[in-house]
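Key result, reporting period 2: structure in, sequence out.
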């Protein structure tokens, strides 16, 4: 690289490709800066939730109820163990020279997801310390509940491998817009649960998490706004498929196990039965888990929200017969194709 500086010719180095240098700090517009600013302003401290109040409430619960709630938080942690997903995205975004706003926002999302996951752990430790790995089941149902979580995490481990590979398969515009369905679903679910729960500590936790998830959704919109216009038809089809993947992946906790998802999920035969039992107990004890009809409604509105923003860019929704949503038939979604996060 040669550059004329004054009258002298100065030698400058060539930067290796896929590298984090040269640095740049340019935000391209006010919208980007405002979203980054908001991400810092809306930070909150999980330690400041009213944990003492939760202690009091837990004293009034029986063992079944404690286990069922711990079960749900552990299931949630499958999706909120997303700090490495975004931390890895931070590294990749630097190497691939994504714009400053994207790199900065991914950083804040990584921090948010870490907090969400710590909330899961803090709740579990109040309800059923050591669950699931150090938990000693007292009967078959407890043993199966424990196994359900461990199997779900095993699927999370498979997902992690697929996610790392996805950077070799998809462009970042497809990848980051793939997060959209997850963030939209998360926003809806946590808002709903903060309205439903009878436990004030959880109400505040859900409310704060929903604030974070709303911002994560805004991030995907920002990526979409400049990515989608440049996307060719093939990439647009991939986004459609990823919306479906988001539904299959997240339905496990936010809806019900989709019947046709079994190419992705590898779960024991008793999974659904035990999961429903745990959900029922936790719901009756006041956790705030929506009823199936409420879950359907939440998903439908999340998908419609995503659909209307995709429509502007000529990207179609996938067919989701479970929710009565007609769209493109994207075929089977295999485990190694799934990108979405929460
Ligand atoms: Fe999250
Ligand atoms: Fe999120």
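The corresponding designed sequence is given below.
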């Amino acid at each position: 690289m040669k550059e004329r500086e004054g009258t002298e010719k100065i030698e400058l180095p060539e930067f290796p490709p896929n590298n984090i240098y040269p640095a740049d700090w340019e935000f391209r517009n006010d919208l980007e800066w405002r979203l980054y600013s908001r991400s810092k302003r809306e930070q909150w401290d999980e330690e400041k939730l009213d944990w003492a109040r939760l202690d009091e409430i837990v004293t009034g619960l029986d063992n079944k109820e404690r286990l069922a709630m711990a079960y749900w938080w552990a299931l949630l942690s499958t999706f909120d163990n997303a700090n490495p997903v975004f931390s890895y995205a931070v590294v990749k975004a630097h190497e691939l020279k994504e714009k400053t706003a994207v790199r900065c926002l991914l950083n804040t999302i990584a921090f948010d997801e870490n907090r969400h996951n710590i909330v899961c752990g803090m709740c579990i430790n109040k309800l059923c310390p050591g669950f699931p790995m150090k938990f000693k089941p007292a009967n078959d149902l407890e043993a199966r509940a424990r196994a359900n979580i461990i199997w779900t995490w095993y699927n999370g481990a498979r997902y992690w491998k697929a996610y790392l590979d996805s950077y070799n398969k998809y462009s970042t515009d497809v990848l980051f817009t793939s997060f959209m369905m997850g963030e939209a679903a998360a926003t809806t679910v946590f808002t709903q649960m903060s309205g439903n729960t009878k436990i004030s500590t959880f109400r505040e936790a859900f409310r704060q998490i929903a604030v974070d998830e709303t911002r994560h959704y805004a991030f995907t919109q920002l990526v979409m706004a400049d990515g989608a216009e440049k996307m060719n038809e093939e990439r647009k089809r991939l986004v459609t498929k990823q919306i479906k993947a988001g539904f299959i992946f997240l339905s496990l906790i936010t809806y019900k196990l989709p019947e046709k998802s079994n190419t992705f999920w590898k779960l024991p035969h008793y999974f659904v039965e035990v999961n429903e039992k745990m959900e029922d107990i936790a719901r009756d004890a006041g956790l705030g888990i929506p009823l199936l009809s409420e879950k359907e409604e939440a998903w439908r509105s999340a998908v419609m929200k995503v659909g209307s923003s995709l429509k502007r860019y000529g990207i179609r929704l996938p067919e989701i017969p479970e929710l009565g949503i007609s769209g493109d038939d994207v075929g089977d979604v295999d485990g190694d194709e799934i990108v979405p996060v929460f």
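The mean pLDDT is 92. The two ends are 43 Å apart (CA to CA). This case is discussed further under Risks and Mitigation.
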